[in-house]
Amino acid sequence: MFPYPEGAVRYLRDPNKPVPSSPVRSAMTGSHEQERLTKRRTFDEAADRYDRTRPGYPPDLFDDLAALGDLQSGARVLEIGCGTGQATRELARRGYAIVAIDVGENLARLARRNLGEFPDVEIVVADFDTWELPRTPFDAIVAATAFHWLDPATRLSRCAEVLRPGGSLCVIDTDHVAGGTEQFWIDVQDCYRRLDPDAGFRLPAANMALRPPEELLVGGHFAAVQCRQYLTDVTYRASDYIELLTTYSDHLALPHEGLEALLGCVRVLIESLYGGSVTKRYQFTLRVARKPPSAAASHSLTT
Ligand SMILES: C[S@@+](CC[C@H](N)C(=O)[O-])C[C@H]1O[C@@H](n2cnc3c(N)ncnc32)[C@H](O)[C@@H]1O
Fold it and tell me: pTM value?
């Protein structure tokens, strides 16, 4: 199933049931390459909202990234899918020389504005899947909630190609996990079921298994992976949570009337039963994979 790592709701299918044809179903549970290509573009339509509402990342994560990736100030870093620069800012504060690329022009415009104070950050509008890779290798690559949007057939080999021997691929993922205002996440599924009676969700427990380290070893381009996990609770007022929902690719792919009805239902629920605010628990996972210093790769995993 196509992953919904940043989404508010995880949709599950019963594999024994036929999948009914429904616009909601196809927006929420797509599994095709075409959907990857369409949905990864949706962030650009929501660039301002994205910048305002997405939670960013815990500062500790970037300290660990520096330690696990062996990165010093001045290191040459490529960030893929920088969005409006939420992770880029933390990287820039640590003194790295950054090339940050994103396929979205509106996102890149906001990233340039947000990173204006850092002369060593260059923002490039490009599709990493087809970008002509620079000849000068990078010490590290960072992809924050973006790696899963890259072409699965080429992303690991292209990352390895643009890294120096011994360089680090740092993949950060965001998952919504069980916790926070627990009952709200159960109640809210009724809002989704109004759109699609077969919709259902279950929040996963916080768990490293959500992001298996061995994924990054496929193909033998990387030799070792180290992982760290972070939990953060964020409390949203109803209007902020509604705005956040409109930054998720699966929600943005809904038909307009369906999205409006869904947002209205969620808002009423938060305001009437939850005193106007709800808390969402995020799990952030950092995986740092090292390119072998030479051609030979001996695999190891550390969590
Ligand atoms: C969920 S957002 C994460 C943005 C940012 N890293 C953050 O943490 O706020 C995913 C980003 O990846 C970008 N993206 C997706 N596919 C891409 C590609 N092939 N090349 C470059 N950027 C891509 C999207 O435009 C979007 O900004």
Answer: 0.88
**Residue 108 vs residues 250, 270, 293: alpha-carbon distances, Å:** 21, 33, 33
Place of tokens 């290798």: 137
pLDDT tens digits, one per residue of 122-156: 999 999 999 999 999 999 999 999 999 999 999 99
List, for residues 99-123, the tens digit of each pLDDT value: 999 999 999 999 999 999 999 999 9
- CATH classification of the domain holding 205: 3.40.50.150
Residue 13, domain member (yes or no) = no
Q: How many domains does the chain have?
A: 1
Which atom of ligand 1 has the smallest separation from the CA of 249?
A: 1
Cβ neighbours, 10 Å, residue 48: 14
At position 233, the amino acid (one-letter code) is D
Closest C-alpha to ligand 1, atom 14? 81
142: which strand partners? 79, 170
Tell me if 107 is assigned to some domain.
Answer: yes
Residues 6+ apart with CB under 8 A from 183: none
Q: Which residues approach ligand 1 with their CB closer than 6 A?
A: 6, 40, 43-44, 54, 80-83, 86-87, 101-104, 107, 127-129, 144-146, 149-150
Note whether 67 and 237 are within 8 A (CB): no
